[in-house]
Amino acid sequence: MASFERYRHPDDLPQSIPVFPLAGALLLPRADLPLNIFEPRYLAMIDHAIATDRLIGMIQPAEGEPASDGTALMKVGCVGRITAWQEAPDERMLITLTGVSRFQIVAELDVDTPFRQVIANYHPFAADLASGAGSAEVNRPALLRVFRDYLDANNMSADWKEVDQASTEVLVNTLSLLAPYPPEEKQALLEAPDLKTRADVLVALTEVALGKMGKGAKPRLQ
Question: What is the pTM of this model?
Fold first, then answer.
């Protein structure tokens, strides 16, 4: 896991950032999101980020909107730092984005770059910059229990040694990233006010999914 000691206060993050609108994609603090970049405009965004501060904001299109130029965006996203990248022979970029902090969009900038840029306000989410904030309030046993039930129901397995060693924050946020839920539920996980609430929402969503599976529906982890 990357160390982000340089980001101790919201003012340590840049006011303007490039954004990557992607429906169903979720990024959370200190969780890793692998991305396969192939569109020219987003390849340009990656080049720009690597040449500057390596920061990119992940944001979902507004509900019901396609992820196209000029589409409305959700008001809350998460900025991440590129912590690994590899150029593929076919000119794709394979990157890992590690979450730093959530942000609110203040305004979208009028830019001549092929990718969109916004003014970001991180202050409402200052606690995101404190590693492990809120972990003590999370019901970790309940989270692990529903996670195990979900895996068992889908004939899936996990490296339980690795799971047990993961911090509560990383566990909650990583499971939120992997959860196979629709964009509006991903946004609810993103906008949860604190880690405990996010864990509670994740447990509730998973319990609903398990209930549906009893009727034949079989959601899968991505």
Answer: 0.89
